[in-house]
């Protein structure tokens, strides 16, 4: 049946939508559902991560003083500067306020020794943002954890400044005169490892942010509570590391006990703050477990079998590379999914 | 037996807590809309084939007369929702974007039923809970069809199709859906609180019609008054009242069945594939009225709510009344009104034309304010996984969205795009403000186009 426009129900202008006695009709808009949304944004999540990093930063300053402030400050400023420069170069809107570059800077700074020269921090931070993030297209597109890319670069470029000896100041008093626990364990099996209490509190030598396990756990609990990090990844990292540590100890490859492995080095800090970087970790729930267990296993393997005392950085980078394939292996089955009947034709 | 909110209530996996926003209209008792000056009754108000008009211009019609005849099995007739005079068939655009033929009716000044009488005719009087097996199962389904009953929760699927027994797929569980999980909406809550008796009677009729052994009414535990009222009305009957966690989308059919029975409706399948039929509470009440009183579906309860309406109310309105009529009855729009939604904010459609008529599926009119809609710019997906943790269908929404943006039909299929019901949980959760549901809709079209090549 053909219809002329005159037969069409009158499409009233917006004024006709309100009754005569109503106040002047407001301008109405349309849009797709859902018409409600959470108040969280990427920037608020990043802010929660920075808040979660605070206990570790405070303990770092407590133990290492100005060195911690200078290293972290240099890294953060460089990261923000490079981020701003590269966003401008690519003609994008400025993203430094989203907090992600600052987080990269803080994590990189906390992963350096107190003694590393200023140019190590600056170069590491520039590489982290430039090579680690922007060559891939910026936030959301990078494959590897930017802070770990930066740290790997300076570690290989300035081996002496970041090696085991860099942590030790023979003239200093207290913890700075001692080797880091894992370096000590590497040198002489079981010798010189601090008590578990000292490991938990952080009263020993090490990278700026790795020494206080309790501070990392406190900040990590905040991250999980705020959903700024998924809980499966830290749980899986610690479980994987514990299993591997137990296996290595039972097999006689190491003298370190499972608690000593878990509470030394950057394992706990990395489990909560590095491995949980959402961009470079799997998106599927099962994938998060595989990724985390892989990191935990590699950390202990590197500590026990390689020439490096610590393994978090390489373990994270190795598993970052595996994320695309993990995601593909672990596509979840939708509710009500059933395998397609193969014998349908038979 | 007036247990209120229960901890550890049954529920489904994942989902979101978008805030209830029910306070606007949850205390407003159901009121009857005065007969509007004009009605526009759509000939397609249900899922299925459109009706064909059975009245000619200037024909007199009486309240309840059939004015559009159902075509085919999955269809439902439409009835005059007032006595008056029919006019020439015209076209209207429903809020969901469909252009449908409508029959205009000019109501008479004197109506057989109005005001409190109309309310009592719908929900008052005696609603028996025994002796209902005097009705043949087939007769119950036939009465539903004759009354033009469709799912009143919003999907508007013809009810008689669900009630007819299917020898190959027997039903053992009847689920009555009283979740009303959409934020803002309170129509079902008010009906359950004010008039539980027709719901119970309708549920027992559906139980008898389907031959199910068990009848359970699922209701979110944010409605303690309704739960108490239903429990009192259902005492001594086989209908079990089961509070559920208040979580969106608890009232989605597949999620509700999972929460109550643990059964998973197969993808692309129907509840009857797992021996279940789901009927909304308002539909159950309309079924009781259709079977016991022979009355067709001519009115429905519409929640008019939100921060942008002067007097939020729950209104018993004739089908075919315009959004304008309902908004005027509720005091008009406030200056801060920014978006008018047919339904609730999670799955409802924004209304571009307030002259659009209320249909059988119009559960509410939600008037959102500028503050409700506070928009932020889209940023990059950081794969935080909140959409994954929210998706009640266990999909990877961000993957679907990015595949749709890239036009990759193969990826859309690999990530099971057709399992998405567009509930909006992912988009609600997204901190990067990706238009996930919109992209999924585009993706479904892309996949269909690719598959039809």
Describe it:
The complex is a heterodimer of chains A (346) and B (453). Chain A is mainly alpha-helical and 346 residues long. In chain A, 53% of the residues lie in helices and 0% in strands. Chain A is built from 14 helices and no strands. In chain A, helix 10 (232-250) runs parallel beside helix 13. The radius of gyration of chain A is 26 Å and the shape is globular. Residues 1-23 of chain A have low confidence and may be disordered. In chain B, helix 2 packs across helix 5, helix 4 (187-194) crosses helix 6 and helix 12 (397-406) crosses helix 15. Mean pLDDT of chain B is 93; it is low at 1-7. The radius of gyration of chain B is 21 Å and the shape is globular. Chain B has a 6-stranded mixed sheet. In chain B, strands 2, 4, 7, 8 and 9 form a 5-stranded antiparallel sheet that branches. A 4-stranded parallel sheet of chain B has the order 12-11-10-13, sandwiched between helices. The longest helix of chain B is centred in the last third of the chain and has 16 residues, at 436-451. With 453 residues, chain B is α/β, with parallel strands linked by helices. Classes of the chains: A mainly alpha (346), B alpha/beta (453). Chains A and B meet through helix 1 of A and strand 8, helix 7, helix 9, strand 16 and strand 17 of B.
Average pLDDT figure of chain A: 86
Ends apart, CA distance between termini of chain B: 59 Å
Assembly category: heterodimer
Q: What value does the Rg of chain A take, in angstroms?
A: 26 Å
Q: What portion of the residues of chain B fall into strands of 2 or more residues? A: 15-25%
Which structural category do the helix and sheet elements of chain A fall into?
mainly alpha
């Amino acid at each position: 049946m053909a219809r002329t426009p005159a037969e069409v129900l009158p499409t009233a202008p917006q004024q006709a939508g309100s009754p005569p006695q109503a106040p002047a009709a407001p301008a109405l808009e349309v849009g797709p559902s859902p018409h409600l949304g959470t108040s969280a944004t990427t920037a608020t999540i990043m802010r929660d991560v920075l808040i979660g990093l605070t206990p570790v930063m405070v303990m770092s300053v407590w133990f290492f003083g100005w060195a911690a402030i200078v290293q972290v400050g240099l890294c953060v400023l460089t990261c923000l500067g490079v981020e701003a420069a590269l966003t401008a170069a690519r003609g994008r809107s400025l993203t430094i306020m989203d907090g992600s570059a600052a987080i990269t800077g803080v994590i990189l700074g906390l992963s350096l020794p107190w003694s590393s020269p200023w140019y190590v921090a600056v170069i590491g931070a520039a590489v982290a943002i430039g090579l680690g993030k922007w060559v891939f297209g910026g936030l959301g597109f990078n494959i590897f954890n930017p802070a770990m890319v930066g740290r790997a670069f300076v570690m290989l470029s300035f081996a002496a400044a970041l090696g085991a000896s860099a942590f030790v100041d023979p003239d200093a008093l207290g913890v700075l005169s001692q080797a880091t626990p894992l370096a000590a364990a590497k040198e002489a099996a079981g010798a010189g490892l601090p008590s578990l209490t000292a490991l938990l509190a952080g009263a020993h030598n090490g990278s700026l942010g790795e020494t206080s396990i309790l501070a990392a756990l406190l900040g990590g609990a905040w991250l999980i509570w705020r959903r700024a990090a998924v809980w499966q990844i830290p749980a899986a990292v610690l479980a994987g590391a514990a299993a591997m540590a137990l296996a290595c100890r039972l097999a006689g490859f190491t003298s370190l006990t499972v608690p000593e492995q878990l509470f030394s080095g950057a394992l706990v800090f990395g489990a909560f703050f590095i491995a949980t970087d959402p961009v470079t970790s799997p998106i599927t729930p099962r994938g998060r477990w595989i990724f985390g267990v892989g990191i935990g296993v590699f950390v202990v393997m590197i500590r026990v079998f390689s020439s490096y005392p610590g393994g978090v950085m390489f373990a994270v980078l190795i598993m970052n590379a595996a994320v695309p394939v993990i995601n593909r292996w672990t596509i979840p089955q939708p509710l009500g999914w059933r395998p397609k009947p193969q014998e349908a034709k038979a | 037996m007036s247990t209120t909110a229960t901890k550890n209530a049954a529920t489904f996996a994942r989902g979101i807590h978008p805030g209830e926003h029910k306070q606007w209209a949850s205390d407003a008792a159901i009121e009857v809309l005065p007969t509007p000056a004009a009605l526009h009754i759509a000939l397609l108000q249900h899922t299925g084939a459109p009706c064909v008009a059975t009245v000619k211009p200037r024909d007199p019609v009486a309240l309840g007369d059939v004015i559009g005849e159902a075509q085919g099995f999955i269809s439902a007739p439409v009835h005059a929702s007032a006595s008056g005079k029919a006019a020439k068939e015209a076209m209207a655009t429903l809020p969901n974007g469909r252009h449908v033929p409508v029959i205009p009716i000019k109501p008479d000044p004197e109506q057989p039923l109005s005001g409190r009488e109309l309310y009592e005719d719908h929900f008052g009087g005696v609603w028996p809970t025994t002796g209902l097996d005097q009705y043949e199962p087939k007769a119950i389904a036939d009465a539903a069809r004759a009354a033009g009953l469709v799912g009143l929760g919003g999907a508007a699927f013809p009810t008689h199709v669900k009630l007819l027994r299917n020898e190959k797929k027997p039903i053992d569980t009847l689920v009555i859906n009283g979740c009303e999980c959409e934020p803002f909406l309170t129509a079902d809550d008010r009906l359950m609180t004010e008039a539980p008796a027709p719901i119970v009677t309708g549920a027992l009729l559906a139980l008898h019609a389907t031959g199910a052994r068990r009848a359970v009414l699922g209701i979110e535990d944010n409605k303690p008054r309704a739960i108490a009222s239903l429990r009192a009305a259902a005492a001594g009957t086989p209908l079990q009242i089961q509070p559920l966690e208040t979580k969106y989308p608890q009232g989605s059919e597949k999620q509700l069945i999972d929460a109550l029975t643990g059964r998973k409706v197969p993808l692309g399948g129907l509840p009857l594939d797992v021996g279940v039929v789901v009927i909304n509470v308002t539909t159950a009440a309309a079924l009781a009225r259709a079977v016991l009183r022979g009355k067709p579906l001519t009115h429905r309860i519409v929640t008019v709510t939100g921060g942008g309406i002067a007097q939020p109310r729950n209104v018993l309105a004739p089908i075919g009344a315009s959004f304008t009529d309902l908004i005027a009855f509720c005091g008009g729009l406030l200056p801060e009104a920014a978006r008018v939604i047919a339904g609730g904010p999670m799955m409802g459609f924004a209304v571009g034309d307030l002259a659009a008529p209320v249909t059988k599926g119009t559960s509410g009119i939600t008037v959102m304010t500028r503050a409700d809609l506070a928009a932020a710019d889209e940023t990059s997906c950081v794969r935080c996984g909140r959409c994954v943790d929210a998706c009640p269908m266990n999909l990877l929404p961000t993957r679907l969205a990015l595949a749709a943006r890239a036009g990759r039909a193969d990826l859309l299929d690999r990530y099971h795009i057709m399992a998405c019901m567009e509930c909006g949980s992912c988009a609600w959760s997204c901190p990067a403000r990706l238009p996930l549901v919109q992209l999924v809709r585009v993706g479904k079209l892309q996949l269909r186009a690719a598959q039809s090549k």
